[in-house]
Amino acid sequence: MSAAPDQYTPPAWTRPLAWFTNPHGLNDDRRLREAVQGKTVMVTGASFGIGEATAKRLASMGAKVLLVARTQDKLEVVAQAIRAAGGEAVVYAVDLSKPHDAAALAERVLKEHGHLDILLNNAGRSIRRSIHESYDRFHDFERTMAINYLGPVQLVLGFIPSMRARKQGQIINISTWGVKIPPGANWAAYQASKAAFDVWLRSVSTEIKPDGIDVTSIYPAVVYTRMSAPTKALHHMPGMSVEEAAHVIERAIVERPDDISPPWLWGMQVASVTLSKPVRWLMQKTYRPAFTKR
């Protein structure tokens, strides 16, 4: 069976391993409806993949969903599907890699809707490239920092005052398991930008929790999306569909934990500290020079 453009189909043998390698979600209509009915929820990166699946799920449970991405036409397709199913969706075509536009979006949303209950930071840019192929590609680092760090920072800054004044709100960030373990080869631009926002948001969460604003960071491993599709090695790893990832976000909204991680991640974190030298040696030895342009 051929894969859809925004997803791909992994080998069947990976499915039994997915329970252990990925965060666990929640599929409970009653609890989700109680949590989001009548609430205003912003989903960035909503034109496909995790964002699209989550937006449709939340709208079906009574949330007013604000769809954010760069492409108006693609957002309208998602919005039309939501409305056809009886849900409520509003489209905002914005390039969040431009902080000024992110700030303007927050201002516009507050003016048009009064407040925001939940912000799901899902938009992002992934890139896998050896440093030896990046000597003349400084723009790769600028772009990933813009969309994965600076844009989200500006967007969160735009909503914190309103959430603080209302003494309620939630910010959910789709991070990556890679920020919790020793950084791997070829992912420097991506991991640095994701780690920057992850650390920033966790630091901020300490300050805003007393004001009634909850922050949940989600650390998925592999999700079968258009963004991960170019990395062929990921096609043979156990992972999640976008619908399964949406259920992880559902759990974040209902239970409001500080973080949601794969079951194995804590063990890897302990090993990366207590066995730092062997782990580093192993990573260096298993890195294939074939990926490196000399």
UniProtKB/TrEMBL annotation:
<comment type="similarity">
    <text>Belongs to the short-chain dehydrogenases/reductases (SDR) family.</text>
</comment>
<dbReference type="GO" id="GO:0016020">
    <property type="term" value="C:membrane"/>
</dbReference>
<dbReference type="Pfam" id="PF00106">
    <property type="entry name" value="adh_short"/>
</dbReference>
<keyword id="KW-0560">Oxidoreductase</keyword>
<dbReference type="InterPro" id="IPR036291">
    <property type="entry name" value="NAD(P)-bd_dom_sf"/>
</dbReference>
<dbReference type="GO" id="GO:0016491">
    <property type="term" value="F:oxidoreductase activity"/>
</dbReference>
<protein>
    <submittedName>
        <fullName>Short-subunit dehydrogenase</fullName>
    </submittedName>
</protein>
<dbReference type="InterPro" id="IPR002347">
    <property type="entry name" value="SDR_fam"/>
</dbReference>
